[in-house]
Amino acid sequence: MISRIDLRGRTLTAAELRRAIPRADLDVEAATGVVEPILAAVRDTGSVALRDLAERFDGVRPVHLRVPASALAAALEALDPELRAALELATARVRRGHEAQLPQPTTTQLAPGAVVRQRWVPVRRVGLYVPGGLALYPSSVVMNVVAAQVAGVEGLAVASPPQKDNDGLPDPTVLAACALLGVTEVYAVGGAQAIGMFAYGAVEHDAVAGDESTVGTVLCEPVDVITGPGNVYVAAAKRAVRGAVGIDAEAGPTEIAILADASADAAHVAADLVSQAEHDPNAASVLVTNSTRLADAVEERLDQRVAATKHTARVCAALGGPQSAIVLVDDVEHGLAVVDAYAAEHLEIQTADAAAVAERVRSAGAIFVGAYSPVSLGDYVAGSNHVLPTGGCAHYSSGLGVMSFTKSVQVIEYTRDALAEVTGPLVALANVEDLPAHGEAAQARFL
Ligand SMILES: NC(=O)c1ccc[n+]([C@@H]2O[C@H](COP(=O)([O-])OP(=O)(O)OC[C@H]3O[C@@H](n4cnc5c(N)ncnc54)[C@H](O)[C@@H]3O)[C@@H](O)[C@H]2O)c1
Ligand SMILES: N[C@H](CO)Cc1c[nH]c[nH+]1
Ligand SMILES: [Zn+2]
After folding, report:
1. How far is 332 from 290, CA to CA, in rounded Å?
2. Statement: residue 22 has pLDDT above 90
3. Which pTM was predicted?
4. How confident is the model at residue 193 (pLDDT cuts 50, 70, 90)?
5. What's the pLDDT at 21?
6. Which residues does the annotation say bind substrate (predicted)?
7. Closest ligand 1 atom to the C-alpha of 134?
8. Which of 26, 58, 129, 231 to mutate to test the pocket of ligand 1 (most atoms within 8 A of CB)?
9. Which residues line ligand 2 (CB under 6 A)?
């Protein structure tokens, strides 16, 4: 079911390795053409497009695009106590993990009276996407909301697809998680249309539940930054609106890469590959190993697990797709080059001396070290964030965190003497750039 790529004995450059690595046919670029008309419709017709698109993609026409406060309160009230405790544990750990990320202001005195400071400011308003197509993601509420709250963001809005079996509102556990975390602005809007709504804002054109006073009112104000995971259409929409707003990484269909040697447990490796394949037929599961014995054993275990797992069809599609493979390498060193070129969203290291191997990885969204750190730990309760870059974006992007919602401002304060000391070099640089008024602006202070 899962294909093999044999790289043994092949010395490839980093660029050649990137091309040799398995990737899905439907990538973010390919989905761009699909999402462009969706974004344009939302920008041009607001709630009309949002309801039409919900009907088309989610199979339900929401009455309330903005979730009423009563529905949030009812969802929290109905939340199963065990699930509430799990969400509270996840929240507490993710909060602690993110508090440690808060950047510190700096002050640099470059000469007497010459000071440059850097201070950190949270963005004003953010749109947080919580997926909800094939699976339901209350854990993504925690990851998005807690990171934004720790950063100090004041305006938080959440969007998640309307569900047929919840009267066109998002899933009740998603609503309950929002209520638990104190989020009051929640939308029953999914996919690329949610990203468009956050980027451009939207007006309500309908009389909601027969109330004429809602016609022509603002449904959603635009945001400064959009974050959150989603399928390939969500990732493509985030790429398309980048610039109008900030985004976190392109956190699209899930990927797991496992770098394992003969010391790894085949049953654990197979379980972890299946665990992430169940997200999406487009999900990627890649094993990189120098042990053909492990590769054979994992394949055998995969066959058993896939037959017994709940989402067999999805898992088969993901494992059987061109984005998944067992990659055979010469040794762990060779394997390191392969996983670095792949830049997986999640990278597990299951080798002897895993911690030392993990330290040498340059590109991965998150690294899971050793036999007792499965990716599903990070998905829920590790204290890290599960919203992570996919499709090779880990070469240049980080996972969601406090910095996704924070920007820095430099503050420059010089005295008269400190400016006088550098006016000569300033004028020299201004003149060489043929911008003499720049130099004159400094000289004017000493006439
Ligand atoms: N990278 C990460 O950090 C991360 C974290 C969690 C989940 N994920 C990924 O999030 C995704 C969740 O996907 P999902 O589908 O369950 O939920 P989703 O909310 O991302 O997508 C559902 C929406 O997709 C839209 N859609 C569906 N088919 C479409 C089509 N043909 N054209 C245009 N729009 C369409 C619909 O509007 C629907 O509301 C999975 O791929 C999962 O792997 C990634
Ligand atoms: N593995 C996903 C990140 O790609 C996150 C997640 C949420 N729930 C379960 N898993
Ligand atoms: Zn997962």
Report:
1. 7
2. no
3. 0.97
4. very high
5. 87
6. 254, 276, 279, 346, 379, 433, 438
7. 16
8. 231
9. 137, 139-140, 254, 276, 345, 379, 386, 388
Mutate which of 83, 137, 381 for ligand 2 pocket (most atoms within 8 A of beta carbon): 137
Of 311, 334, 346, 386, the catalytic one is: 346
Sketch out the chain's domains with CATH numbers: 3-24+253-383 (3.40.50.1980), 28-100+122-247 (3.40.50.1980), 415-446 (no CATH)
Mean pLDDT value of segment 252-261: 98
Collapse the DSSP code of 254 into the 3-class scheme (helix H, G, I; strand E, B; otherwise coil) and give the result: coil
CB atoms within 10 A of CB 416: 10
Contact 12, 20 (CB under 8 A): yes
In this model, does residue 294 exceed pLDDT 90? yes
Render 273-323 in DSSP notation, one character per residue.
Answer: HHHHHTT-TT-EEEEEES-HHHHHHHHHHHHHHHHHSTTHHHHHHHHHSTT
Using one digit for the tens of pLDDT, what is the confidence trace for 29-47? 999 999 999 999 999 999 9
Nearest ligand to the C-alpha of residue 229?
A: 1
| pLDDT, the chain, mean | 97
Mean pLDDT along residues 339-360: 98
